[in-house]
Amino acid sequence: MHTLLLVLDLFGTVVFALSGALVAVRRGLDLFGVLVLSFAASSAGGITRDLLIGATPPAAIEDWRYLGVSLLAGLLTFYRYSAIERMRNPMQLSDAAGLALFAVAGAQKALAYDLPPGMAALLGMLTGIGGGMLRDVLVSDIPAVLRAELYAVAALAGAGVVVVGDMLHMPPTATTLTGAGLCFGLRFMAIRYGWRLPVARPPDADRHG
User: Potential cystine with 155: which of 24, 35, 79, 128 (Cβ 3.0-4.6 Å)?
Assistant: First the structure.
């Protein structure tokens, strides 16, 4: 389980670092800004998770590999942005992959620290959305979790699969992969087809609509 969590965390770190770096390059930040946003996007969720469950110091700070892969992803994006941008929806896809990997890894780590099932699912969701929230705040955007199609809901669904699988004593690797696939699938379909929760309509819109 320790190895599985480490692999998921590092893969999630890479893809979220790419999403943070892509946003930074699009906003015209310099190299330092790209690297800062890359690390912030890739580490905020995991650091928050570890602090909440008492796993201190957080893995993203204690283990040099987290910083190393996030900086590598930032440098790759900074110097090869055109090649990455030619991919189809690179930022959205990397963000969706990071969301899925961190959601299931967060839930698994919460269960490993004996959190109740409901709290483990919520902590998995928080792990998934934390990096994207900080990334968006740093570039003065409304966080995607508050406006995007099935963002937090997709993370909660993926984390929920992990928690239910643990309650049913199913193999953790299978439930983790299933949960990650469900989360990524929901987020991808939401991006492709615009699936989203109901949006609030201000009173003025009702009067003029």
Answer: 128
DSSP string, 29-42: --HHHHHHHHHHHH
CA-nearest of 81, 99, 90, 87 to 151 is 99
Amino acid type, 42: S
Looking at residue 192, its pLDDT comes to 82
CA distance 46 to 33: 21
In the chain, which residue ranges form alpha helices assigned H by DSSP? Answer: 2-26, 31-53, 59-62, 64-79, 81-85, 90-112, 117-138, 144-147, 152-167, 172-193, 203-208
Rounded-to-integer distance, Cα 184 and Cα 60, Å: 23
Residues in the chain: 209
| Phi and psi at residue 90, to the nearest 5° | -60, -45
